[in-house]
Amino acid sequence: MVFFFLLITLAILMVLRMPIAFAMGITGFIGLAMQIGPMPALSLLERSFFDKSSSFILVAIPLFILMAEILTSGDVTRRAIIACQAWTGHVKGGLAMATVGASVLLAALVGSSTASTAAMASSAFPEMRRHGYNDSLAAAVVSVGGTLAVVVPPSIVLVVYGVLTETSIGQLFIAGIVPGLLTAAGILVMIKVIAARTDYAPKGEPFQFGHAVRVSSNVIPMLLLIVAVIGAIYGGLTSPTEAAGLGVLGAFLIVLSQRTLRLKAIGSSLSRSIRATVMIIAIIVCSSIFANYLAFTGVTQAILVALADTELSRYTILAIMVLILLVMGMFMDQLAILSLAMPLAFPAAMTLDFHPVWFGIIVTKTVEIGLLTPPLGLNAYVTAAQTKVPLRKIFHGLLPFIAMEVVVLILLLVFPRITLFLPEMMSR
């Protein structure tokens, strides 16, 4: 009875637009106070804040965010878009394909879907519109390209999942490479199909080899930084946190050598990084308070016992969990979904003997789709705000890409080796 009362309380706080972190923290604390008393609950609250916020792996979050902010402020991300456009812009649908290529590069540096989408909307979309692209398609490509930052390392969502579930973040990063590239390939195929069947994606400017080589030279340092960060993790040379520090140093060296970062921009980058980090850590800490309440009340254990006694197959239960996450994605952002769902979903998945890294990629891929689906569709809203294209047109343009995303998700569900073969090679 108390559990359902707290669920209603949580729902009311969310409807009142209280940040999900505080809503979960307050609800969890009330539950603990009712379960074990106010003073023991306060003691547990204090310990939860300290244990979670002092975790060394959390240092990776502000460092990866700062790396992305430095590169974006230093104009490196815009140059990546220009370089990709120079190589593929001359073919039908080429500018859209170049946007996807640049989105992959941004995903490997930014780690934030909304930041990647905003960067693409302000730089790639005007270029596509200038060359006669249909607004619906151009905005959809920008939105779906931004979702790659959710799966491709160093994804902030993967870091949060790793912290919440105590799963190796290094293995999660490596596991996200192939699914991320598979998603990008699916987007490219869909663009090619749309370009072949419609006049939505005309050819761009004629190809000039010299120009393509010249603008690509600005991207080489960024590619080397990506290889260094991911390679250091894959080779076991550094932890994800140490690799993030390497990334920040490399980002500073790149923008200093190219003389594209002003002193004022450094302060702005630090400020944005701090705000984003505080929000993410608040979600992690408050989620742990709610998880502690579930543990004390035995709700998690009761669900695990029910799963053990059910006659449904483990894949049927997994399909139900994925569907629930997809529905949650229609109304909530990805970090809120993780903080709400993982205290129950992760123990259930482990009871069903699913691999924690594989399950993490499945969850991440599922919440990625939620960034595109109405009515919330956060990436669509970011694109609409930047491009002034009506949301209705963006969601209409996203329909074939959402179908493609679902196909990729099904492939990852049916063939776990797609996700796990790189982490297994890493651990040898």
TrEMBL record:
Which InterPro entries does the record match to this protein? DctM (IPR010656), TRAP_DctM (IPR004681)
Is Signal given among the entry's keywords? no
The protein's location, in the record's own words, is:
Cell inner membrane
Q: Where is the TRAP C4-dicarboxylate transport system permease DctM subunit domain?
A: 7-418
Q: What is its main location?
A: membrane
> Hey, which family's this protein in?
Belongs to the TRAP transporter large permease family.
This chain belongs to which protein, by name?
A: TRAP transporter large permease protein
